[in-house]
Amino acid sequence: xxxxxxxxxxxxxxxxxxxxxxxxxxxxxxxxxxxxxxxxxxxxxxxxxxxxxxxxxxxxxxxxxxxxxxxxxxxxxxxxxxxxxxxxxxxxxxxxxxxxxxxxxxxxxxx
Amino acid sequence: xxxxxxxxxxxxxxxxxxxxxxxxxxxxxxxxxxxxxxxxxxxxxxxxxxxxxxxxxxxxxxxxxxxxxxxxxxxxxxxxxxxxxxxxxxxxxxxxxxxxxxxxxxxxxxxxxxx
Lengths: 111, 115
Known about the structure:
The complex is a heterodimer of chains A (111) and B (115).
Chain A: E1 4-5, E2 11-14, E3 19-25, E4 32-38, E5 45-51, E6 54-58, E7 61-66, E8 71-76, E9 85-92, E10 99-101, E11 105-110
Parallel strand pairs in A: 2-11
Antiparallel strand pairs in A: 1-3, 3-8, 4-5, 4-9, 6-7, 7-8, 9-10, 9-11
Chain B: E1 4-7, E2 10-13, E3 19-25, E4 31-38, E5 42-51, E6 54-57, E7 64-70, E8 73-78, E9 87-94, E10 105-106, E11 110-114
Parallel strand pairs in B: 2-11
Antiparallel strand pairs in B: 1-3, 3-8, 4-5, 4-9, 5-6, 7-8, 9-10, 9-11
């Protein structure tokens, strides 16, 4: 079993839809949870990160962490074609400790 | 791109030849990392550096070596390239401050093909 599981998709949604992207993990010691967006032939770009449980909102993006279920989510409201990319979840124990990545979910937003 | 430049952006090389990839940062971050990204595996850590001349292995370090002689430069060398090292290589940087955590920031990658 991988430490971090993420459905690779692809996920296709119509423009304006609410998108839900998810990851599950097995190591309860993870403390920091990150979401990256990666466009084709580009490097991953940090969207947001959270510490421990709870929600964090940034514009149309909301990250949720449920440590009791070992489940994290990224919600995208009013999705746009420019949101079409691969979304990677990532987790860390903190500090300089190793970051573990999911394999990424490919999202396509149809105009 | 958080002031990270990777070179070359693309490279094709033959099996058995040495190859060096370069990462240059202008952020003065202490930590630098090399990852590879492959379909079905995601991003995997090859080596990382926590200061000049201070490096350590990641989870897929076999066949790779690194060097860091200056804060801004981190080199990844494939000592004798193999076809299994065909991949996209990403450099990342971080500078732990807030509770000792700093998220990674990535360059745009080097696409390496070993024939």
